[in-house]
From TrEMBL:
MF-aspect GO terms: alpha-amylase activity
Record carries keyword Hydrolase: yes
Major location category of this protein: cytoplasm
Localization annotation: Cytoplasm
UniProt keyword annotation of Flavoprotein present: no
Keywords: Cytoplasm, Glycosidase, Hydrolase
Family under the similarity heading: Belongs to the glycosyl hydrolase 13 family.
Lineage: superkingdom: Bacteria
Residue ranges of domain Glycosyl hydrolase family 13 catalytic in the record: 13-418
Name under which the protein is recorded: Oligo-1,6-glucosidase
Annotated signal peptide: none
A GO CC annotation given for this chain: cytoplasm
Amino acid sequence: MKKTWWKESVVYQIYPRSFKDGNGDGSGDLRGIAAKLDYLQWLGVDVLWLCPIFQSPNDDNGYDISDYRAIMAEFGTMADFDELLAQAHRRGLKILLDLVVNHSSDEHAWFVESRKSRDNPYRDFYIWKEGKNGQEPNNWGSAFGGSAWQYDPATAMYYLHCFSKKQPDLNWDNPAVRREVQDIVRWWLDKGVDGFRMDVINLISKDPRFPDGPVAPGKLYADCSLALNGPRVHEYLRELHQNVLSKYDIMTVGETGGVTPAIARDYVAENRAELNMLFHFEHMDLDKDRERLAQKPFRLTELKRILSTWQKDLGDDGWNSLYWNNHDQPRVVSRFGNDQEYWEKSAKMLATCLYLQRGTPYIYQGEEIGMTNMAFETIADYRDIGVLHAYQEEVVQKGRDCQEFLRYQRHFSRDNARTPMQWDDSANAGFSGGTPWIKVNPNYRRINVSAQMTDRESILHYYRRLIKTRKENEVILYGSYDLILADSEEIYAYIRALDKQGLLVVCNFTAQTPLFELPEHIRYSAGQLLIGNYTVTDGPMARFSLRPYECRAYLFS
Ligand code: TEU
Ligand code: CA
């Protein structure tokens, strides 16, 4: 397996709007990020992924871009960005930008032109279709609810938007669109950025027949995700790679829903020359019934099966991204851990379980201090377009019980991840001197960076230690992975091995005290505790009982 810097890096994801407000207007910004670079360097991460910072009307918080070469005014100026990049590089930190090119904003100059007339030179930058019998061209639905087609009276045709109607899908079948995207990517790489996270990148190629899709019970439309992994997606990614990406020493990670390990290989295998790695979502729907908007029971055996399959199948060719959290997901400690009595133990355990696997770790802002879900009380507290649209559709239109709806959103809403970063116990968690754009989690007095900085036993210090431990042990970076005790619903345990070095990782996902027993076929001579979340007095590594949410990693040879 080829060794590269991005396989040995730890990525830290920043949601700029909620990270740090530099000018007191209530919204995070680039100067705010720059002010926290020392902190990030101290933590030991290598790469910062910034969610979109480009000019945008913010229908979907920057995922609707109206100028790919300009900085969103609320976040600062291009000079602020140049300064941030220089300051980051000075500290050895790399910067990834979020490339959102499946769609643009409807306020982008291309779309403003495109909608003017049927023969506008930019008409084919987007996907326009005639209606069918006075209705939408097909039954595709938008990810945020309703049809994925919007009728535009100016030209009496419909345009496709797999997300909101302010996010029209670009037409990648048009070579001029692909050239524009290449130019944008080259422009930023020439500026010195270190790579891209590519938003819904496997949605860029639509089936030219635009066939109707299956409609789930109780729904009106087919999920637009049926258009993922379309017919020409690999051709387009290879073209982008060959013409632009391959000319720079950068990293790329695709956001790709609807991808199994078998499908993933075609995107990330080394000889494919497309992407370095991707985000799959197979472990994100484990406890979520998307169709019914309900919680479903979490089964550890399922989580293990999914993550282990990815570990195995992208073993020697391809590379995994390791994440529990991002700006679209609830907080992991509230989800697969325990944000009450075992908050600290379970946060450390979850980090250990994931970040000692093979792949590049992604830490989402606040995860390193165990930030939790937020109990928003009313619909007025929410900011996410996804929640607001769902509310209209489910509660207002379909008459669904409002409390039940809010209960679901308290578990799963994207706004759980978007509350301001908790820096200290001063007003607004030290995030902003103004009124934050979204409510601060009231638990900030207890959970914040400043308190954890001074406590060597904190989650924050544990993350720092874990990152350091990864870097010091080649077996964590490049060793093989084998799940053991696959049938346990309590313990997640696996073995990593490289040459003569072995690593045993044992994690208790419960508040109980299950007994761990090393399977007999595994031989070892001596074990040394590398990291763990409880004090361990030396004892056998082959058999011990675990305390609530305990984790241990033993190095052996
Ligand atoms: O998300 C793509 C995506 O598939 C989401 O709809 C995801 O399934 C959902 O948020 C989970 O609740 C990306 C971005 O990460 C997201 O923030 C954007 O809203 C979306 O693309 C459109 O750009
Ligand atoms: Ca600001």
